[in-house]
Each structure stands twice: as structure tokens, then as C-alpha cells.
Amino acid sequence: MDISAHLRSSKALLDLSGAAQVKGVWMGSTTLPCTYTPSEGFTQQTLTWSMERDLSTSTIFRRDSSGDHILLSRFRNRVSVPKSSPGDASLHITDLEIPDSGHYTCQVIWRSENYSLVTKEVTTMVKVAKVAVTKPVIVAGELGLAVPVGAKASLTCVAQGSPPITYRWFRAVPGRSGQLLGSEAELVWNSLQPSNVGMYYCEVQNRVNTGIVQRSDAVELTVRDLPVTTDAHRPATDLPEAAVTSENAVGYPETDETTQSSQRTHLYLIILIAVLGGAVVFLVIFAIACTRKPKNESIYEVAFHSTADVITLDTDVEVPVRCRKEKINSETEVSYENITMICNNYESTTDNSYESICLNKNAESETLVNAMESEYKVQNFQ
Q1: Which stretches make up the Ig-like domain (predicted)?
Q2: Spatial contact of 7 and 116, defined as CB atoms under 8 Å apart
Q3: What is the model's pTM?
């Protein structure tokens, strides 16, 4: 197949598909179709949407290598073209106005591998009109109009027409006007009860033909009890069995066992904290008792040696000089027995009494030393 034949075949595949006419609803939205089948060897180079009205043509939208551009200010934030769907160049318009009526042209230009250009376009006429709201229809939820007690139920009011559409829900009351329940398109019960049984209807209205209200046919909502199952006829299931509370019949697990387990856990924690606190207090008291030093254990020792004797004190109280005895004998080696002088309760006595006690002890020590020297001399003389 030569190049010209290939181009003719590709051009046939690149034909645009659209709609001759599209009706739009005032304040609604609509889509103007413009599609083609992508062909190998051809790349979309530009896409433009233009509008012709009152013998004047204006470009609304343009897509090229630099991106998307909305060129008519009154269409900004109202028009869009799909980006992720190759071959789909449809124009989506929201918030339709009456002046949006006109002829819209979709034009696509492709570039081939040999840099030749192929141009195709399709035109669609758009007519925007204000549409009065239609008679609404009530659509029941998933469970229908006979709903188990305690289950969630809903009724939806569906109507067509130019937005905005206002909704009102009523419950029929015999001999009187209906009871107003809500102003949304959907009426919902989170937990249906027997007191909700009754006849319901909705009313709709829009800005077209103001004052005209459309009413739906009434529907009857009923509540049915859940079937009572016995152990013999209970269906097998892998789910855990749940107790049914008194609030509704849907079934929620009771929490008595969980509450008791939580209370026991709190009690164990309190006991553990009390035991640890008692142990800490006991250790503190024991440490204080071990580090405390009795006052009556202070001992003074006076040792007599052949060299300078040493006085050892357990406290910082200065011992009077007369309590110390020094004896130095460098010529002979004399071995004396250590004499220990203990001055007890010195902290509670006055300085005078303390000195007298120490002098008495000192006199006794000198007498003992003199006796030992005499004995030593007698032995040497013999």
C-alpha cells in the first residue's frame, strides 16, 4: 500500500462523531459529544470549540501543546474537556444559561509522520430552555417499604426540571393537612420504630411557573418485627453471637463482662501501687536507721610507746593537753603495754569536770608507768 492510500485510510478513521442537536435545561448541565478513533501515525495537534450566535462566531476553548485555554470569559469555570481519554474531545458545560443556546463546532487538527495536517470538524446545535419541574416519584431505600424494626430506612423524592428544585416531605394525617417533616430530597430514619409507620408524600417546585407545586403519590411505610430464631433453626455462621439490647432489635453485644474485667484490672493496679509505696517507705526508714550514729560510742585512746604515742579520737572535740602522755626512750628499747583511757559521756560534762577526770586518769597512768620502770631497773641490776 502506498503512502497516499495509507493517508486516505487514516483520514477515514479520523472522522469525528457528534450529535446534531442537544437540549439543555436552564441552570443544569450538558455534554456536547465529539469523538474519534485514534490512528497510528497521527498525533492530535490542536482542538478548538467555537460558538456561533447571532451571526457571530467566538472561540470558547482551545487545546494545544501549551495546554488548555478558555478564551471566552463567560464560560470560565463552566466548560471542560477530558484529558485522560484519547479520542474524546467532548465539551462539558455546567450552569447553563439561556444565552448559551447556539451552534457549537468541534474542530480537531492532526499531524502525520510526514508533517502533513488533517483537519476535521463537527457542529452541534444547543437549545437551552427553562423546564418546569415534573411530578415527583418516591423511591424507597434498599430495604423497601417494609423495614425491620431498628433498621435504617430512607425515602427519596425524584423530579426533573430546571434547578434549583425545592423539596418538602409530609406525613399524611387523617382529616388534617400533612405534617411537615423535612426540606431535603431524601428522608432518612437511622432506627425505624413502630411509631414511624404511616403514609408519606413529597412536594417539589422550581423557578419555572412559580406558584405551581407538584405532589407525588403517597406511599405507605411499614415496620416488621425481626424473626425469632431458636437454637435448632439458627443458621450456621462464623460470626460471634451477639446479644440484643433493649434499645433496638438490630443487636449489639452486651458490655457487662467487659465492664467487670475492667474493674478487676483497676483493682489490681491499685493493690500493686499500694505495695510498691509501702516498700519504698520501709527502705527509706531502714536507710535512715542505718546511717544514724549513737552519741555514747565516742572513745578516746591514749597509747604509750617507745616513740611518740598517738591519740585516736572518734570526734572532733579537742582533748586537754594534760590527758596526753608522751615518753621517748632512745637509749633502750622498753616495751610498754598500751594503756587505754576512756572518757565516757564527755559531751554532757563541763570543761572543769572533764579536765579533772582526765587528770585523775593521768595520775593513775603515771603511777603505773613508774612502777614498770622500777621493775625494769631491778631486773637490769640483777
Answers
A1: 28-123, 136-220
A2: yes
A3: 0.47
